[in-house]
């Protein structure tokens, strides 16, 4: 496997994913019962944007870097979820240096309460060692394991409630993400009350439409699509946008996601006349 998230950390897609992740956890925190957070592809947990991989790609410059340049007055006008995300990034930067940027396990750890637990998978040995070094908390269990088989082994969790973040390296997927659809279907069958958040890249709109059709055919109800595209759909760029498919989204999450993406778009888009965002039900109740 060639994919390394170190090259993409802090880009617009990370910003979108982490803002929505925090909003999901905030919603789950409204109930006093504990829950389990499961991250299928945890990565290194934290990254240094001043190091060679991030500097080589420069993707963070059109992502988190743009937001960190905003004035306090501009940030105060942003939705609460965006403000919380930026506060956490600043907190990490103050602790570990201006190049520090969190991965989803670290972001999730800040959103969990003492009564909640987490399970994080990472199958690449060298990245897993970085994850173990970067994330040290008794609430979070780390597993050097392939999530395509590991996830089904840990659900449903004993907490009964929870969120699964699925963000696989899409170099192993093809066409309309058949392996991913199969994983989602099998996981949902084992845990139909769980919340599943599936991140996906948008490079070819036709491919995304095929993916959506396959997801509709699964028969799974309550599928919410959240998307942000920083380039027009027909731009021949490696990544025009990204989406988060949320199954069983918590109450009011759709409204909060729409507010966040509406605010993020003008700050992250790469083309004056292009770019878009959308929050829509792929499948309703």
TrEMBL record:
Pfam families linked to this entry: RsmJ
GO terms for cellular component: cytosol
GO terms under biological process: rRNA base methylation
EC class (word): transferase
Catalytic reactions of this protein: adenosine(2030) in 23S rRNA + S-adenosyl-L-methionine = N(6)-methyladenosine(2030) in 23S rRNA + S-adenosyl-L-homocysteine + H(+)
UniProt entry keywords in alphabetical sequence: Methyltransferase, RNA-binding, rRNA processing, S-adenosyl-L-methionine, Transferase
Site note Interaction with substrate rRNA, residues: 3
Active site: 167
InterPro entries with a match to the protein in the record: RlmJ, SAM-dependent_MTases_sf
Positions annotated to bind S-adenosyl-L-methionine: 18, 41, 104, 122, 146-147, 167
EC number: 2.1.1.266
Molecular-function annotations in GO: 23S rRNA (adenine(2030)-N(6))-methyltransferase activity; RNA binding
Family: Belongs to the RlmJ family.
Self-association state and partner proteins as the record states: Monomer.
Its job: Specifically methylates the adenine in position 2030 of 23S rRNA.
Protein name according to UniProt: Ribosomal RNA large subunit methyltransferase J
Source organism: Acinetobacter nectaris CIP 110549
């Amino acid at each position: 496997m060639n994919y390394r998230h170190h090259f993409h950390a802090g880009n617009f897609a990370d910003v979108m994913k982490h803002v929505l992740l925090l909003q999901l956890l905030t919603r789950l925190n409204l109930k006093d019962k504990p829950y389990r957070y499961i991250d299928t592809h945890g990565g290194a947990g934290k990254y240094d944007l001043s190091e060679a991989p991030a500097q080589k790609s420069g993707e963070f410059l059109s992502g988190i870097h743009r937001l960190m340049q905003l004035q306090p007055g501009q940030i105060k006008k942003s939705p609460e979820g965006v403000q919380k995300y930026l506060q956490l990034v600043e907190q990490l930067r103050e602790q570990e240096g201006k190049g520090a940027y969190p991965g989803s396990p670290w972001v999730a750890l800040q959103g969990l309460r003492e009564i909640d637990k987490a399970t994080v998978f990472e199958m690449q040995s060298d990245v897993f060692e970085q994850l173990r070094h970067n994330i040290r908390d008794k609430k979070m269990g780390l597993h050097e394991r392939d999530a395509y088989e590991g996830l089904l082994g840990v659900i449903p969790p004993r907490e009964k409630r929870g969120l699964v973040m699925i963000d696989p390296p899409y170099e192993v997927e093809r066409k309309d993400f058949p392996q991913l659809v199969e994983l989602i279907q099998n996981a949902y069958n084992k845990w139909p009350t769980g919340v599943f958040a599936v991140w996906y890249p948008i490079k070819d709109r036709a491919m995304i439409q095929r993916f959506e059709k396959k997801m509709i055919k699964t028969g799974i109800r309550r599928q919410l699509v959240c998307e942000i595209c920083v380039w027009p759909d027909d731009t021949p760029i490696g990544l025009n946008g990204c989406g988060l498919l949320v199954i069983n989204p918590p109450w009011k999450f759709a409204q909060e996601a729409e507010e966040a993406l509406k605010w993020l778009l003008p700050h992250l888009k790469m083309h004056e006349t292009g770019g878009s965002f959308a929050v829509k039900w792929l499948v309703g109740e």
